[in-house]
Amino acid sequence: MSRRRSTFVERLAAITVLVGWSAHANAQACCAGTGAVTPGRLALHEVALVGVQLKGAAELGSFDARGQYEKAPVGASELNLEQDLFGAIRFLDRAQLALLVPFVETRRTNRAASEFGGGLGDLNLSLRYDFTLAGASRSVPGIAALSGITFPTGTPPDAEDLRPLATDATGIGAFQGSLGLAVEQVFGAWLVSATGLVAVRSARNVTTGGVTVHERLAPQWTALGAVAYVLPSEAAIALSISYATEGNAVIDGAEAAGSGRRMTTVTLGGLLPLSDSWRLQGALFANPPFSDTSRNQTGFCGLSFTVVHSWT
C-alpha cells in the first residue's frame, strides 16, 4: 500500500470513529453504547495518542414510551456539557487499548428553579483488535473486534443528597460491559463502515423516595452505519446514523412494562489534520425530534470539538 493510500485510509478511519463516538456519547448517564467506541482510535502508523474532547447538547423535547415526541414545556430547559480526556496505546501490531475519563455537567431549569451541577463521570476502558485492515484487499474488508468496560465512578441519579434538580448526577451507578464487531472498506477516497454493539449492565439496588428496589436493565443493542470521504487536502467529512434499542427493565423480579428505550442519532463530522502528529475533529449530532424515532429518551442537538496529539 502506498503512503498516499495509507494516509487516505487513516483519515477515513479516524473520522468514522469520531462520528461513531458522538452518536453514542450523548447523555452518558443513561447510555450504554459508549463502552466499546472511543474517539481515541489509533491510525495505522501511530503507537500512542492523547486528546481532549468538548461536547455540548441542548434538550429539545422528549419521547414517551409509545415514541410520541413532545417539545419541552415552556420555562423548562436542559443543557448537557462534557469534557473527555482520553488516551490510547498500541501493544500489538493490530491491538490497541484506550482509556477515557469524562467530566459531566448539567444546567437544568423549570418554571420554579434553575440549577447547575456536575462532576466526574463513568470511566471507560476499551480494546480494539483488527483482524484485517480496510483497503488492504478489494475482496476482504477491514474487520475488528471491539470490547469495553465502563466503571461506575460517576454519581448515579438515585444517590443521596443530590441537588433538587439532580444536576450533579453524572453516571448510571452500574458496571457496563460491551462487545462489538466493526466492518469497514475503502472505495477510492470513500470509506463505508458498519458496527454492531451489545452492552450489558450489572444489576443494582435503586432507592427512590425512601423505597429500595432491585433493578436490572435489559441488554442494549446498537447498530451504526457511517460513510466518509477524504478531500484532496486530506481533510475528511463523514455522516453516520446509529440506532440503539433495549427491552424493558426488570424491577424486583417483574418486567416493568413500557420502560424499554430506543434512540436514533444522526451525526455529521469533520477532521482537519494540522500535521503528522496533530489533528482537529468536530461534529454536529442530533436525536431528531420526530415521533417513532426514539422512545423514553430526550430529543437533543449538540456539537463536539476534539484535539488529538499522536506519536508514531
In short:
By secondary structure, this protein is mainly beta. The protein is built from one helix and 18 strands. The protein has one helix at residues 3-25; strands at residues 48-63, 69-71, 77-92, 95-109, 114-120, 124-132, 142-150, 176-187, 190-201, 204-208, 211-216, 220-230, 236-246, 250-251, 254-255, 261-273, 278-287, 298-311.
Describe the secondary-structure layout.
Elements: H1 3-25, E1 48-63, E2 69-71, E3 77-92, E4 95-109, E5 114-120, E6 124-132, E7 142-150, E8 176-187, E9 190-201, E10 204-208, E11 211-216, E12 220-230, E13 236-246, E14 250-251, E15 254-255, E16 261-273, E17 278-287, E18 298-311
Antiparallel strand pairs: 1-2, 1-3, 1-18, 3-4, 4-5, 4-6, 6-7, 7-8, 8-9, 9-12, 10-11, 11-14, 12-13, 13-16, 14-15, 16-17, 17-18
